[in-house]
Amino acid sequence: MNEKQQTISKSVSVTGVGLHTGVVATMTFVPAPANHGYKFQRIDLPDQPIVDADVDNVVDLSRGTTIEQNGARIHTVEHTLAALVGLQIDNVLIQLDGPEPPIMDGSSIKFVDALLDAGIEEQNAYRNYFEVPEYVHYMNKETDTELVALPLSDYRLTVMVDYNSTVISSQHASLNDITLFKDDIAECRTFVFLHELEALYGQNLIKGGDLTNAIVIVDREVQDGELDHLSQLLSKPKVSVNKSKGILNNVDLHYPNEMARHKLLDLIGDLALVGRPIKAQILAARPGHAANVALAKKIKKLIKSGKGDIPQYDPNKAPVFDINQIGQLLAHRYPFQMIDKIIALDENSVVGVKNVTINEQFFLGHFPGNPVMPGVLQLEAMAQTGGILVLTSVPDPDNYWPYLIGIDACRFRRNVFPGDTVIFKCEFTSPMKRGIVKMSGRGYVAGQLVCEADMIASLVKKK
C-alpha cells in the first residue's frame, strides 16, 4: 500500500445516465490538495454545494448508498468511491451536474480507466491510515448478514454471498492486494434478480437500469407474455431467457463469481465513507449497503475514540525533516533541542520522534538511581513538535518565532525512561487567527500513551 497521498494530474469527465434517478449527468474528477479527501459538488445547484463523502452524511440505502449535506443529495456513490480507493487516490473533488454519478456499465471500470487516463500524481504528504486496533463486528440476524474487521497491517477483503438460488450458488471473492483491484474487481457489474425488477420500478428506483448496465438473474419460470412486458420495462426490442444460463438476454459473465466480486466492490466503496484509508482484514457474509455502512460507522466511532490512531514509526524510512533541518526551523539548541526527527507532516498534523538516552543532561539530577524523563520536558518536546507544524503553516517561517502561550488538560500517563523512543503527534484543533492557533498533542512509547495536552501557540514576527 502507498505511503504518500495521491491525486490526479488533470481533470477528467465521464457522462451517462444515473441508475436510480434515470438522469443523464456528467461527472468530473478534479485534482485536489493533500488532506482534501473525497468530496462531491453539485454544480447544477445554486451555490454549488459540497457534500463530503462521509458515513455521517448517509441518508438512504435503497439499493445503493446516498449521501446528503448542505441541501445537496448524491445518489449511488459506491462505484465511484470504489474506483478511487482501488487506485489508492486520496484527494479528488467530484463535480456533478446532476443528482447521481453515471452508472456506465454497472461496474467501476469506466471510472478507473478515466482516472488512469488523467494520470496519478504523488503528493508531499503521508497517507493517514487508520489501522483497526481490535475486533469490530456487525451482525443482522434478520438478514443473516455478518461483517467483521480484524487488525492487519494491510487491506484485505473477503466476501461470501448466498441467495438460496438455483441459478447462483454460494460464491466467494477475495482481494488480498489493493493494487489488483483494477484487474480482479473493477469490471464486475451490479446485478438484480428478475423477481425484484417490478418492485424496484414500483419504488421509483432503477429508472436508468437496462441490460447494458446490470446483470438480470432469472430465478423463476418466465412465460412468453412476460418477455414482451420485460422488453418494454427495459426499453429493449426483445429479451430472451436461456434456462441453462439463467441470465436475461444471455449476458456473458466476466467471472463465474462476478456477483460476489461486485459485492466486494460495493463494500470497498461504502467503507471509503470512513474518511481515511483503512488497514484491516474485512470478512463479510451476505453484505449489503446497510450492513457495509453500519460497519463503516463502527470503524469511524473507533477513530473518534482515539483507539488505533497511534502514529507508526519505521526507523528505516527517510524522515520528513532530519536533525539538521529541524535546526534550521527551530532556534532551540542543546540542551533544549528535544526532537530528533519529523516523520510525518501535513497541513493539519505533525509527528516527531524523541530518542531518550541516559546521556540526557536532565538525568544527572532527576531521580538518580531511578532516572525518569521530567514531565515538563516531555511537554517541551511535544511543544517543539507542534512548533514545527505552526512554522510550516506559513510561507516564510524564517521570519517568525513560535511561542507556547497556553497549556490545558495536561496529563502524564506513565513514566518515560532512558532507552524509550517517544513519538509525539500534534494536530491543529482550530484554524490560525491573528497568529494564534490551538493544537492537541499526545506522546506515545511502544504504542502506549505517556502524555497529552491541549496547547495554544503564537507566531510572533521577528523584529
From TrEMBL:
Pathway: Glycolipid biosynthesis; lipid IV(A) biosynthesis; lipid IV(A) from (3R)-3-hydroxytetradecanoyl-[acyl-carrier-protein] and UDP-N-acetyl-alpha-D-glucosamine: step 2/6. Keywords: Cytoplasm, Hydrolase, Lipid A biosynthesis, Lipid biosynthesis, Lipid metabolism, Lyase, Metal-binding, Zinc. One of its GO terms (molecular function) is (3R)-hydroxyacyl-[acyl-carrier-protein] dehydratase activity. Gene3D superfamilies: Hotdog Thioesterase, lpxc deacetylase, domain 1, lpxc deacetylase, domain 2. It holds the Pfam family LpxC. GO terms for biological process: fatty acid biosynthetic process; lipid A biosynthetic process. Zn(2+) binds at H79, H262, D266. It catalyses: a UDP-3-O-[(3R)-3-hydroxyacyl]-N-acetyl-alpha-D-glucosamine + H2O = a UDP-3-O-[(3R)-3-hydroxyacyl]-alpha-D-glucosamine + acetate; a (3R)-hydroxyacyl-[ACP] = a (2E)-enoyl-[ACP] + H2O. The active site is at H289, H366. Its cofactor is Zn(2+). Transmembrane segments: none annotated. Its main location: cytoplasm. Signal peptide: none annotated. CDD domains: FabZ (cd01288). Its EC number is 4.2.1.59, 3.5.1.108. It is found in: Cytoplasm. GO terms for cellular component: cytoplasm; membrane. Involved in unsaturated fatty acids biosynthesis. Catalyzes the dehydration of short chain beta-hydroxyacyl-ACPs and long chain saturated and unsaturated beta-hydroxyacyl-ACPs. HAMAP family: FabZ, LpxC. NCBIfam families: lpxC, PRK00006.1, PRK13188.1. In the C-terminal section; belongs to the thioester dehydratase family. This is Multifunctional fusion protein. It comes from Dyadobacter chenhuakuii.
